[in-house]
Design goal:
Rossmann fold
Length: about 260
Amino acid sequence: MLMRRRLVLSALLLSLPSVGRVQGAPAVAGVVLMHGKQDRASGLLAPLGRTLGGQGLRIDAPTMPWAGSRDYDVDYPTALAEIDKAANKLRAAGASRVVVGGQSFGANAALAYAGSGREVDAVLAIAPGHVPDMWRDHPRISVSLQRAREMIAAGRGDASASFDDINQGQGRTIRTTARIYLSYFDPDGLGSMPRSAAAIPRPLPVLWIIGSNDRLASRGADYAFAKAPAHPKSVYIEVSGGHLDTPDIGRDEILKWTLAALA
């Protein structure tokens, strides 16, 4: 079944025009491009941002709460409000259509944003990451979740404590409030990509592009991509490489899809 779906989606991708033949996006369109966990706005996605900007797209690359410089300083609903600000900034600059996307945690947030019912024209999910729904029984994360819930129940939700985080299999300790921690790590909350994809209220173009060596690649399209409302311009692509190099290896496919999705 999965092999058949990949063949169908590959055929759809091939039917899109090559980068050299694309006539371009609408006169003014924008992309909110969000970095991954512990990264920064000028980091891994900067070359892709320049490529998209070179095709006439307006780019806004905000520094999100999961950046290394911020380390979960606000909760996930506030992060969605920050995406609102970035999207509205693009619209104020004349963008009539806006794509919300990112790499790893940035892809997670793009799906959460669309799943919240906010105005968005397409979702770009590059090497999606942060999977609290898969960490439900993780020995360290489950202990941190219990601590956060107990603190909130005791009226100490805004008190800081040490909690566990995972970034591509590597554990680390973070310090934030119980309420903020739970907002990102609740297995049934905003951080769950299957939940977010299923909550998208109307069909819109979604690109899910992932490296064959990515930890999440084995889950395939059925993990979250297939749960979003079907749209003729939605595509699931598996490229060679891993979690960090997908933005570069898949750059042509990302550009081609983005322009086609906005056409």
